[in-house]
Predict the structure.
Amino acid sequence: MIAIWGANGFIGRHCAHDLMTRSMHQLTLFARDFTDFPLSADERLTLVNANFKDNPRIEALGESQHIILTVSASGARTFADQPDQERSENYQPYQNFFSALNALDQKNRHIIYLSSGGTVYGESSNRTPLKETAPCIPLSPYGQTKLDIENALIQHCAMSGDTYTILRVANPIGPWHKGRGILNAILQAARTNDIVNIQNKGQTIRDYFAVQDLADAITRACAPLTPHNNILNIGSGQGLSINDLIALVEETIHQKININYIDAVETDVDYNVLDCTKSKDVLGWQATTPLADVINQMWNQL
């Protein structure tokens, strides 16, 4: 049995879909609500309305062996000027969750936490792909909180007998995204012939990859023989500037994008690309889906 918190979010939806398609696990899905939930009803699915911060409904966990935590109450810039709010909305609910897990009789659960490979490391000094052993010097409250949750999970597992897998995720793209996201903004502007605002002259480099490949990594982390207690980078290992991404969109949809360049945000790093060698070694995983295929899929669904 597998439990997913944040199951009706961007990543949670794809995670549930991949597990339903490729495994025979019973899934207990937790979300604030299941409005527009894209998966069809199935006897293997149990849906639980739960507010992770105030009432995560942990009593509904049952005998789940794997707990997948995708919940985040904010984006990278939501509380950029409010670090105390960032901690109260994100860090404290996770601490409360781990404390509630300790109170349960069942132990030896495997907890998979989706962290942010795009923010926990901070700036890359030599502009080369970052390994998991790179220093973590976050520039934003969001990145610092993600790192603090990682440490809280490791401490919880050391004391409880549970195990962990921390996935430091780069920049997944794909359908079912509820937020804007840079690719969503670009495609929406193309569809409506509007102007899209691009920061830092479009020179910011990120590690974009298909969210379906991320779901594959999570499914592999749940496999019976997968080693636990690992921190793993999940991305493509390839850097793409926003200008490069725009050029790929234009080539894929055969349409010019109207761009307006604006100033960069101080807490954004200029370069973030992840070295995912360890994920290939531990999970047998690597990102394989061409970005053009993802762009086509998203474009056709607009």
Q: What stands out?
A: Residues 98 and 156 are 7 Å apart (CA to CA). The mean pLDDT is 92.
